Amino acid sequence: MPDKPSSTLRLTVDTDALAANWRALDAMSGAAKAGAAVKADCYGLGVDTCVPVLRDAGCQHFFVAHWSEVEAVAHHIPASQIAVLHGVLTSEDADYAQQIGAVPVINSVEQAERWQASGGGRCHLMVDSGINRLGLSPSELGDANVQALEVDVLMSHLACADEDSPMNARQLEVFKQTRQQVAHRSASLANSAGIALGSDYHFNLTRPGLALYGGVPRTELSGAITPVAGVEAAILQTRTICAGETVGYNARFTADRDMRIGVVSLGYADGILRSWRGQGAFTFGDKHLPMLGTVSMDMIVADLTEAPEVREGNWVTLPYNLQNAAQQSGLSQYELLTVLGTRLRSGNA
Ligand SMILES: *Cc1c(COP(=O)(O)O)cnc(C)c1O
After folding, report:
1. Catalytic-residue membership of 39
2. What positions does the entry give for substrate binding (predicted)?
3. Does 23 share its domain with 151?
4. 334 is catalytic
5. Where is 28: in which H helix or E strand?
6. Which residues 6+ apart lie within 8 Å of 85 measured at CB?
7. What is the pLDDT of residue 348?
8. Domain check: are 203 and 251 in the same one?
9. Backbone phi, then psi, for 346, in 5-degree steps?
10. How much is the pLDDT for 342?
């Protein structure tokens, strides 16, 4: 096969910022160590790009959601440092865990039984302290199969750590009580936002995800966290339209004057969804190029009024500061990262 021509779009990942974010979150975790949530392909930024950086920064606890995610992470770190949050839903999962050496997070009495039946051994245990997502209810912790587990990290997950909610303190109390009910080596409660709730929430291990990748779920973190992701794309074509002409799918923008526009090579499959409509703007150097009309499949049209020098083949940037982008697009900071498409990632410089 001939060499492929270079891509017209790319995701940039600032690996220095990623490392600095992990170190900042580790420092903010006080006596606790910071781990890293690397599920969903490092929230869309790429396991192969991010995991070696986190490892070299000093991270030793990695969390994925699915068993299908273990292999890619295990290319970079020992499988024993990988925890699988969804636990063992089948005996196939349990056997795979035993063979590959990744650590299941046990979430139910059934999972505890299944893990013991597969041979047991080191595992983590998730207790539900109020989010009502995954995890054992405190009342289930007395179960014989649960008591028999070799629990390394006892963990729970906060529902509202990114808000000033009384639920945070309630979950903290429930979690502390569950620590009396089952033997464990260490304890972990805080996600990114939970780290900012203070030392009561830190225990032995924290589990940041979003903030590693530049998300700012609480204002306390804004000074410490640097953006990591950048979205860049080429202008495929420029044209001049007359007053009264429309742009894009469903003709949602009508020019009120003659104007020069550029067609940017970014669209739905890259994770730039229709919800950006009428909100976003590209940058070209320090020039501002508003999006016009609706994202139309693989393309977005930009207003080139401020940058008459822009030509076909020039590159523009979609600022991906997650706090601002969340306001512009109506998507959460989590969604903004995890929707980034594989086509964008494979364009990586
Ligand atoms: C995803 C996840 C995290 C990371 O949460 P962020 O809010 O992204 O920091 C931590 N713990 C568990 C159990 C998770 O599922």
Report:
1. yes
2. 133, 297
3. yes
4. no
5. helix 15-28
6. 39, 63, 64, 65, 105, 126, 134
7. 58
8. no
9. -75, -10
10. 87
